[in-house]
Amino acid sequence: MMNENNPKVQRVATIGGILLLLIGLLVGISYIAPTRDQVATIAPEISLPDAFEGVEIGAGAAIVYDLKTGEALFAIEEETQLPLASLTKLLTTHVAAEKLGENGYVRITAEDLRTEGDSGLLVSETWKVGDLARFALISSSNDGANALVRAVSKREGTTPALALSQAAAVLSLPQTFALNGTGLDTNTQMSGAYGSAKDVALLLGAMYEKNRDLLLDSSQERASFTSAEGFEHHASTTNALAGMLPQLVGAKTGYTDLAGGNLAVLIEVAPTRPVAIVVLGSSRAGRFVDVEKLVEKTLEHFTYTP
Predict the structure, then answer these.
(1) What is the extent of the structural domain holding 204?
(2) Do 21 and 88 reside in the same domain of the chain?
(3) Could you write out the three-class secondary structure of the chain?
(4) Under a CB-based contact definition with an 8 Å cutoff, are residues 82 and 61 in contact?
(5) pTM beyond 0.90
(6) What percent of the chain has pLDDT over 90?
């Protein structure tokens, strides 16, 4: 008869126990863990609600674009080429900041002031490029935009139209070209600039990366600026949503007879997580309603999707 106290017997018993334990664990794992086929069967049943389902807006084209992932969360005719109106000033100010530097200077000429509207600029007055760009974005100053694009074209040795269109090409905005820096209609048939909702979203993304301070200042309700000669100028926004959207990083309005109501905004749904929202071809009042709806649905989307 074998002695249970025999070390050899004890080793065999120990090894046997370990083997039984391992077998039990393997059986348990195979029972608990679903197979690949089971996962494939279960996964389609798990879906997040579409925050944008059923959204109706008045704009002819629109996009909600996640700049981090490059995904269009919502889109209507997002690549259709349409009149940009004063959204053109986003391109004008971005190019001016890049080519002239925000600390460069621009002298206002009589030619700059011949365009539609009077924003209070004075002939021979000298402005810092960054200040004039902010003034043009906040108050939608056509005089300021004219002065900036004229200075860029002079530096580049080309026309304003070519300077802006070349900049659009560098930024890979395929539907965008501009005849002037303001976006004002050149006549009853031709807009001053054309582009798509997606192009404007990508332009906002480029400004967010390269000229974030300039973009951020564009969302202010009002601001004051002083020229080099000491003349003070006040800018008030044309954006009815300014001060209403705590996530707002940048914004630009646009309206002409050919364009209808345009609005582009950039919000941060989380720190350094920018989303561009653009509507083209809405109405003067409807553009704000459209964007407000899309902002609300965007925030709902990111509530569902961390």
Answers:
(1) 61-304
(2) no
(3) CCCCCCHHHHHHHHHHHHHHHHHHHHHHHHHHCCCHHHHHHHHHHCCCCCCCCCCCCCCCEEEEEECCCCEEEEEECCCCCEECHHHHHHHHHHHHHHHHCCCCEEECCCHHHHCCCCCCCCCCCEEEHHHHHHHHHHHCCHHHHHHHHHHHHHHHCCCHHHHHHHHHHHCCCCCCEECCCCCCCCCCCCCCEEECHHHHHHHHHHHHHHCHHHHHHCCCCEEEEECCCCCEEEEECCCCCCCCCCCEEEEEEEEECCCEEEEEEEEEEECCEEEEEEEEEECCCHHHHHHHHHHHHHHHHHHHCC
(4) yes
(5) no
(6) 79
Judgement on whether residues 90 and 217 belong to the same structural domain of the protein: yes
Segment 249-301, tens digit of pLDDT: 999 999 999 999 999 999 999 999 999 999 999 999 999 999 999 999 999 99
pLDDT at 227 over 90: yes
Asked whether 259 and 280 are in contact (CB, 8 A), the reply is: yes
* Total number of domains in the chain: 2
DSSP bridge pairs for 282: 261
Identify the residue whose tokens are 């089971």.
38
Q: Is residue 51 part of a domain?
A: no
Q: Are 196 and 148 in the same domain?
A: yes
